[in-house]
Amino acid sequence: MDKLVKMFVEGSKAEALDEEGVWCVCTVVCSESEAISVAFDGWGEEWNRTIDDPREIRELSVIPESSGRRKATNLSRKSPQITKVIRDDKLWMGHHEVLVDI
């Protein structure tokens, strides 16, 4: 875990699993010897989480869009189960981008 803590310093960008198991862009809030606290970009403090499993955080693999909203892709399922969508989220259906406007 020490190597991981050195890799993700306070203020750095990363991707972490949220409560639904979706990789989301986040900002490292605090990195201690045993855990890393992250804030998910575009989400309130109630969604912040502390990560102690190194499999639940990784280096940023996509450039975050200027809106600060998360971008989730799920290419492993033909019919993904979407549980949380908010205004201005972008979804991909096949090769078509859909903007949520509810």
UniProtKB/TrEMBL annotation:
Matches recorded under InterPro entries: Chromo-like_dom_sf
Name used for this protein in its record: Uncharacterized protein
